[in-house]
Amino acid sequence: MAMIFCPLYSGSSGNCLFVENGQTRLLIDAGKPGRTITTALELIGVDPSTLQGILITHEHSDHIAGAGVLCRRFGIPVYATEGTWRAMDGKVGEIPPGLRRAFDKRHDFYLGDVGVAPFAIPHDAAEPVGYRLWGAGVSIATATDLGHFTPDILSAISGSSLVLLESNHDPDMLMQNRSYSAQLKRRILGNKGHLSNEACAQAILQLTETGVHHIILGHLSGENNTPELALSVSENRVEEAGIRLGRELSIDLAWRDRVGGVYTLKEGA
Ligand SMILES: [Zn+2]
Ligand SMILES: [Zn+2]
Fold this sequence. Notes:
By secondary structure, the chain is α/β, with parallel strands linked by helices. Helices cover 29% and strands 26% of the residues. The protein has a single domain, classed as Ribonuclease Z/Hydroxyacylglutathione hydrolase-like (Metallo-beta-lactamase, Chain A). Strands 6-5-4-3-2-1-14 form a 7-stranded mixed sheet. Strands 7-8-9-10-11-12-13 form a 7-stranded mixed sheet. The longest helix is centred in the last third of the chain and has 14 residues.
């Protein structure tokens, strides 16, 4: 048994992650057009009609843009907190009542063969969550859209086999960006905005102490960051802390505009 994970898309322009364990296949978020997600799934050999659920983190369009279309076209149930449902109802199109699933973020639940452990995140949305998914003796966590990295998030994802962690922006690039209003800059930099490269690096140091050995940097900004910069900030901090990259810790990237790596996770591996 193994758990399979693939970040189909990750970034401010759209998020969609694929997870498989046993007979269960699901998506975390569907923030690209339905057709784009369908094509990405086919690229990794997954028939979209075999998906058993779409777990939504929050109602921002870069997380839900294709959710309604995929739900209606393939009959896939959509899971979200009550607060997220209220906030996304007008944005996601019609969801047939039989495919609408609300959950309480304080309680874990099963979606087929996958154990789902949601946790609250500090972000400017109605009731946003991250997820830790369990199966095959391993766990995968996704923590993006974080204004800051909290002790509660650390404990929710401590020791995960793989963590997709936000490395959204370089604060200097953001401040110098003339196409962003002062208000938007304040929002991104704020306590309920997005995690900077530096804050991401600090979070990685905390996570490695809990036994996390695999990190994927995600939700990069297209204008206020580059993949090279995000990677170098985290790698430098980790090496300064005496952690050996490639041996004790691996850091990969999830891409904004192309399908990322397919990760196979097995117990003890
Ligand atoms: Zn968001
Ligand atoms: Zn987002």
